[in-house]
Here is the input.
Amino acid sequence: MKKMQKKIIVILVVMLFIATYLPNVSGKTNYEFHSYLEMTTELQDITNNYSNITKLYDLGSSVEGRTIWGLKITDNPNIEENEPEVRICGAHHGNELMSIELPLLLAWLLVENYSIDPYITDLIDNREIWIIPLINPDGRMATPVPTRRNANRVDLNRDYGYMWDGSGGSPSPFSQPEIQAIRNNALNNNFVLSLSFHTTAAYVNYPWNYKPQLTPDNDLIVLLSNQYAASSGYTAIFGYDWYQVRGDTNEFSYGCRGDIDWTIETGNSNIAKSWDNNRDAMINIIDAADMGITGIVTDKTTGQPIAATVWVEEAYWPCFTDPIVGDYHKPLLPGSYTVHFRANSYEEQVHIINVIDSDKPTVQNVSLIREDNYYAYQVTWCNFFDPYHYPDNFQNNPTDAISALGPPDNIFASLGLGGVIVLDMGKDGEGGIFNNQGDDFIVFEGDISPEGYDVYASVTWDGPWTLIGAGTGTSSFDLEDGSMENARFVMIQDDEEDGSEYATNPGFDLDAIQILNPSSVPPIMPDIDGATSGKAGKNYEYTFVTTDPNGDEVTYIVNWGDNSDEEIIGPYPSGEQITVNHSWVEGDYSIKVKAVDKYGKESEWAILEISMPKSKFNINLPFQNFLENLSNLFQVLQKLLFLRF
Ligand SMILES: [Zn+2]
Here is the structure.
């Protein structure tokens, strides 16, 4: 079916069931603004009444200790599934009351029509929809009147880390507990499309908000923005063209996570009217989250899902797989695309993928092969210094922070004079920097004129930061110089020494960070399982298993305790159980097994004491014992013969 035809039908269907079911919705909410407690009660009512398709999450607490609620609506809400995820949030600003009501009304509409309306049922079955109606509960409940800012008087929609610059009273990126809660939720879920409601205007505001250059996904974003605008009667607007904002949720969502996120500006007084304007448009966004390409990225050997990054050349901005399932969802318009699949410790793969249907994604599953390469995984926060003012911001620096991810490619992020970037070098257990012999990581500069910078490292995203050293141009660094054993986050700050802030691509030009030797953690001491007593000369099976905290392959070294040569077995994937046979001559032995990863890091020896033969066989089965002794003698003879010839 043609897209427009389908969209029209969709809108007609939505209008039809709204006409049928809206009384139920309005009966629940009777179009009155909700206090924090009233909203909490409604979210709890929804989860109690629709427990098969909802789950209510405590995302964190506000400054004054109020819970920030996240309502997940999907089939199988307790299971992470291969489904695109969509987030609808409201009330970064506590006085923008309408922005609480629209997500809440949407929640009611969805749950009340599940298994009644086939279109809504299909969306709930095939999406994971997160509704976070009130991000700033303290502002909402402030007295005598609700306030825009939170209880620390910070504008929460300036507290996000992508191109944060301290506006809105934000003392540092992600400084406020409310925004840390939203950040954690966004890092744990791979939102594809998101809406952030505000008042008071009639705009469909799309990124960027901080600079005049368009995003690489602009064609798709404009199409969806225009759809929203047509449905709502609002005006689609490129955020920067309206006014410049630094550190808002749209920039974080798209900048750090590849999630296309809109600021929707509505009225703040007539709930029925705002709901009528936005209802169908919101549902269209939920629907649109599965256009483009999708699939699962796994390890070719183990079949396990991978934390991978998907880069489409024609819309060059990363999206991330969900490491639990391995699924990715990249919205794209119909066309032919060259898609790069990258992951730390895996060989890159490139696929040409054709998107035919704008209503149905093209599926491309990918299995990657192990290879030693470790680069920055995602942008944690950044602040490129820009000397210009609106409407001329970043006219001399069109570079993007994500250009610092992945291997060196001479596409780089220019920090501006004194600018800062913080990069996450890997998910837990899949990367990170360790202090090994010699240098531990290389910082690559991406253009021909070397510029100076300082390098800091931290175990956690928000510090404390330890100075590791200073560099000019491409340089390598040793955690030892900061007396650090390991780090996951690297901060790079331009040293303000070189060049003009008005030059093209000012400041240090960060191309990539490569980890030189990512493994420091040895494998866990193996488990040995098998008989602890038995008959001499008989073969017994023993199983060994261990895991390597870095997920490296492991080789086992086995000492059977009987003066035979140590056996070296492997390598095997971390966690794979292996089985080995051995037999002994009469006596007591200690089987010793250790595991070694590919970097030569060794586990402790695991020891299993065994006895061959067990003494009761000596007493009760003398004949068998005699045969076993013969067999032992034969083995000894065999060994002697071997030695001689
Ligand atoms: Zn607002």
Remarks:
- The chain is about 25% helix and 30% strand.
